[in-house]
Amino acid sequence: MDFGRDVQRFLTEMRARLTPEEAGVTVFGGERRVPGLRREEVAQLAGVSTAYYTRMERGNLRGVSESVLRSLARTLRMDDAEAQHLFDLARAASEGARTRRAKPRPARLPQRAAQLIDTMSDVPTVALGGLGDVLAGNALGRALFPHLFPDNGQPLNHTRYLFLDERARDFYVDWERDAHHVVSALRLIAGRDRSDPALMALVGELATHSHEFRTWWAGHTVNVHSAGTKAIRHPVVGELTVAYETLTLGSAPDVRIVTYLADPGSTSADALAMLRSWTATTRPSVEDEHSSPSTGAHSPAGPHRPR
Asked: Where is this region: Disordered (predicted)?
């Protein structure tokens, strides 16, 4: 990934989406050749020279002060995720090649977290690593996302599943929205740590094999989606909509525990209740799978599906 080009695309998109009227800039007629704000307008609003802002937009964020970054974030109406991404990019530019981070360790689910997931038997729950590696799921979580938990084999990476597995496009009712969310989350990770070889390999693989991913990755949208809804077409209980909440662990910040619920009294709640009944037979617990020497946390058994 080209760092300078990433910075340029990000800042260009930020100023392109903001109209002069929204920014409080007086327009004195004449045709504007660029969408959104001009560079000189951004510079004036942020309190820096046009040359200085132009240098930043061309990818040189090295040495830019925190006050200037905050002013730029306010000027371009960045939300929290976008502002954090800007700071991450500036930090990466300042560190440059001088800082060599240790090779990132694969995300692992702590034993106590596995026990917690297992006790949440009435709520579909899945544990994910930052790049979409599926680390574990309780019985109902495995049943809700059967494609991710093959009967015989390792759980799938959710990010690869979304873009490289045709089943995902039918499983997720609004596949495009959900896939966009994953791309924006990867962008945030890339801003924090561009030295992660697993991230580089994943992005390269997806960009090579998925036109949608390649197009959206170039767009440089960043966002955080820690809560929301997903509409799915389940192969057993049919279509349902579930609300998700993301929990983080102090002992393992690179692990996300995601829970799924349906609105009480809704048809989706009925479908989820039907799924609970379907998974009521004896199944291995998350804790057993997590501690098993033959499978480990990365290979929980999936629910048996009808043939």
From this structure: 282-307
Assigned CATH topology for domain 3-98: 434 Repressor (Amino-terminal Domain) (1.10.260)
CB under 8 Å, gap of 24 or more: what pairs does 40-45 form? 42/15, 42/72, 42/75, 42/76, 45/75
Query: What residue segments make up the domains of the chain, in order of their start?
Result: 3-98, 111-291
The tens digit of pLDDT for each residue in 45-98 reads 999 999 999 999 988 888 899 999 999 999 999 988 889 889 888 888 777 644
Q: What fold, for 111-291?
A: Beta-Lactamase (3.30.450)
What count of Cα atoms within 13 Å lies in the side-chain half-sphere of residue 90?
A: 21
Q: Which residue has the tokens 């094999």?
A: 209
Whole-number Å distance between alpha carbons of 253 and 130: 9
Give the residue among 73, 8, 9, 16 at the shortest CA–CA distance from 217.
9
Nearest to 273 by CA among 122, 132, 167: 122
**Radius of gyration (Cα) for the chain, nearest Å?**
22
Q: What is the model's pTM?
A: 0.74
**CB within 8 A of 78, min separation 6: which ones?**
14, 86
Name the amino acid, one letter, at 11: L
- Cβ atoms of residues 85 and 221 within 8 Å: no
Integer Cα distance of 156 and 9 in angstroms = 32
Nearest to 190 by CA among 85, 60, 66: 85
How far is residue 234's CA from residue 102's CA, in Å, rounded to a whole number?
A: 41
